[in-house]
Amino acid sequence: MKHDKIGSVMTTEVVRAGYGTPFKEVARLLADHRVSGLPVVDEDDQVIGVISETDLMMRQAHTPAGPYEADGRPWYAHLTALTAGSRRRAAKARARTAGQLMTEPPVTVHADATIVEAARTMARRRVERLPVVDEEDRLVGIVTRRDLLRVFLRPDGEIRDEVVREVLVRTLWLAPRTVSVSVTEGVVTLDGHMERRSDTEIAVSMTRQIDGVVDVVDKLTYRLDDTRVQPEEQALHGVADNWLRGR
């Protein structure tokens, strides 16, 4: 079973900044290209950081019109005595270049990573975009949450064909009509009678991993509950059991 790679959905024409790019030029790049963030690269085009609109807002709060404390100090002055994160925010409030504004180290992804892997990285690191890099960490593209959501626009018929081909036939060695597979708005329904309970679990688990699947409705039944069989007996049941155990 193959997953779509990041290289198939990323944007290759990337708006970027250098370490010394002035603050106003960064703001202009974001505004002119209507993007909410961009990567910062060095002279070898390697990604060294990422700038978001939030980073620029920290600097904006430092303008003369920004809020001040009662003693006349800017709002961020007291942050230097607090956490490392607070000190970084205070430094960004005084930033004049992209290198001073950027968040580092950058969270990146390789072009041969799957869409699922990229989505998990975004969710875990709480970022809205990922610079895409090659084997030498040079910038080759960028992917956003919107790009990853395109996978859910995959046609239902295409999803059904992959479930039948990759899950039922190639993995479980079943005849295509053994299990009824229907897909509506990305929701896959599996209906049929199988020999073993472990096979039904494999079918449901693998179907959930297919690109574009929103959910799986499990209507599968089985003749034998082989999940209670002793390990030495289970080894006789075939390669599908090895997949289920993660081998």
From TrEMBL:
Keyword annotations from UniProtKB, A to Z: CBS domain
Organism of origin: Streptomyces anandii
One Pfam family hit: BON
Record bears the keyword Transmembrane: no
Protein name: CBS domain-containing protein
Domain BON positions: 156-224
Entry annotated with the keyword DNA repair: no
PANTHER family: CBS DOMAIN-CONTAINING PROTEIN CBSX3, MITOCHONDRIAL, OS02G0818000 PROTEIN
Gene3D superfamilies: 3.30.1340.30, CBS-domain (3.10.580.10)
Domain annotation CBS: ranges: 10-68, 102-159
